[in-house]
Amino acid sequence: MPTPIRTTAALCAAALLTGCGGDTGAGEAGLRVSTTTGILADLVRQVAGERAEVTAIVPHHGDPHSYEPSPGDTAEVARADLVFSNGLLLEEPGIMKMIHSNARKGTPKIAVSEKLEEFGGTVIKLQEDLGLDVLWLGWAVEGAVPGEGSQIRITARELSGPGDLHVYLTDTLGTPHSYLDSTDGLDAADSFTLPPEAHTHVNWVFTEPGTYELTVTGESETLAGKRREVARGTVTFAVGGRGDQGGRGRELLATGHADIALDAEKGEVFVRAEEAATGESVRHPPGSVALSVPDKARKTVPKEEAYRFLGDAGADIWVLPQAVLGKHVHGETDPHAWEDVANAEAYIRRITAELTRADPQGRAVYEKNAAAYLATLHALDAEVARTLATIPQGHRKLITTHDAFGYLAKAYGMEVAGFVVPVPNQEPSAAEVEHLGRTIRETGVPAVFLEPNLAARADVLRRVAQDEGVRVCTVYGDSFDEKVHDYVAMMRHNANELARCLGGEGS
């Protein structure tokens, strides 16, 4: 594969691919900068040198999709002169709410990737396809919500049906967090929040077969806690064989990806589903469809004590699984833009502009450091392309534990064949295991890949890989660890590991 041609700053031949900071400038750090992730912190340090004290909210091994800020994080944001986030809904909403609530008035809050194209970068649509054999059902918010940091609070108001409903999320450590629980009736506690234009994954559990009707409301909620109802609607679930009556006269949604969605601007509740043939999103009025939870979705309550809220261990339940492990709130655009090194160059240009705006006296230092690091990235981009080009054409397919590598695939001639995250505390169905095994066989890949911070939860991927006789290797997506501490090292590792495990030469 030929090396991609990039339009970037001129390559300095003497630049070393070290990933180290550039010119420090004179004197002690003048700016205090808070960033959401370690990757952003590293990029900011490359430009700022010692003119800024840079801290990251999400620690090494942390997951920006699910990390809960600590009091120490709040204190760092409160004293920051500048706050950088990735944006595009990469960060867990609680992180962004903490930033909006605690940053000093007038402190710039920059979501770097949300203007990436203005600085020479590209963004792509997020692709999600787990091949589940039951409906993959989440929640979504569409439309703008007025006010900085405002969000939509979704509340379950009424439930009719033969049993109870539990809606919960399982974090990356396997701990369940209840969103809705009808066991003791529904009240204000049966609610959660989502930012504008966001989607989240959850588990849905019904305790008896039959037809259920769930009424929900959406309220706009400001940082001060003021609420105003903007939407209300009722959705129907057809659970098990006895739920067939609920599907009569309605279109039955049984597979694929769907959301119960609230439009904050139009004041509507609807079901948003993907057309199987086209992949296009279609809005269904809630009275026109029924959400299917078939008999093949019947499972049993896990034995772990943390799941007693679902009932006695071993009791039958009907489950639409979360599918993606951990809090995973996101929008339509893939936020993992840095996996294309050319996009990291756009990050650097944006960071340089914002640091200069906040500290004009440091312009010369920032521009000098940025030029040196852009040269490093330009050379790294070519190195990654050369390394991945050694992979045989038929092996350039990625099966991973996280949908974080679309940019890498698009930039360097790879293909995302699928990503697999085990349903927490639940054995996968025979169909799900077979689908993964079939994907591995059909693609002919010699390896699958997991991220170090998800390694402890990837038993299904390991087991199926072993059964199919393929290797399990590691790539870095959202965070560093004790082995990889900076962006250049991360991308070099990813390129070499992909090449080594997929039959290329490495470098």
UniProtKB/TrEMBL annotation:
<dbReference type="InterPro" id="IPR022434">
    <property type="entry name" value="ABC_LPXTG_lipo_actinobac"/>
</dbReference>
<dbReference type="Pfam" id="PF01297">
    <property type="entry name" value="ZnuA"/>
</dbReference>
<comment type="similarity">
    <text>Belongs to the bacterial solute-binding protein 9 family.</text>
</comment>
<dbReference type="InterPro" id="IPR006129">
    <property type="entry name" value="AdhesinB"/>
</dbReference>
<protein>
    <submittedName>
        <fullName>Anchored repeat ABC transporter, substrate-binding protein</fullName>
    </submittedName>
</protein>
<keyword id="KW-0479">Metal-binding</keyword>
<dbReference type="InterPro" id="IPR022435">
    <property type="entry name" value="Surface-anchored_actinobac"/>
</dbReference>
<keyword id="KW-0813">Transport</keyword>
<dbReference type="InterPro" id="IPR050492">
    <property type="entry name" value="Bact_metal-bind_prot9"/>
</dbReference>
<dbReference type="InterPro" id="IPR006127">
    <property type="entry name" value="ZnuA-like"/>
</dbReference>
<keyword id="KW-0732">Signal</keyword>
<dbReference type="InterPro" id="IPR006128">
    <property type="entry name" value="Lipoprotein_PsaA-like"/>
</dbReference>
